[in-house]
Design a protein that fits this description.
The protein has 104 residues and is mainly β. It is elongated and about 75 Å long. It has a single domain, classed as EutN/Ccml (OB fold (Dihydrolipoamide Acetyltransferase, E2P)), CATH 2.40.50. A five-stranded mixed β-barrel has the order 1-2-3-5-4. 5% of the residues lie in helices and 32% in strands.
């Protein structure tokens, strides 16, 4: 499974009838400026540009469609929820007055 960011849409004026309803999106692993090359993933969730998604590739992607196995090599299977607030840093413990020199 790959964590990626949707960086754009891919428009096709014609497509195979075997491909179900959905959209082709350009994604990049590791974020919009991530280390990998952009690739195209099929989306049935309605993901948008800038959204972080989970992508599967290969036979796992194609098998999701059941017996038909359309020619889909990458499939968006989830949307990563943004954190609503940053994770708080752990507080620094107060020095123990019974142990001189602690915290210096």
């Amino acid at each position: 499974m790959i964590r990626a960011t949707v960086t754009g849409t891919v428009w096709a004026t014609r497509r195979l009838s075997e491909i179900p309803n959905g959209a082709f999106l350009e994604v990049r692993a590791g974020g919009p400026d991530g280390p990998g090359s952009p690739f195209v993933a099929f989306d049935v969730l309605g993901s948008g540009v800038g959204e972080e998604v989970l992508v599967v590739q290969g036979s796992v992607a194609s098998a999701w469609f059941g017996e038909s196995h359309p020619p889909v090599d990458a499939l968006i299977i989830g949307s990563v929820d943004p954190q609503s607030s940053p994770v708080p840093a752990s507080p620094t413990p107060d020095p123990d007055p019974a142990r001189p020199g602690q915290g210096e």
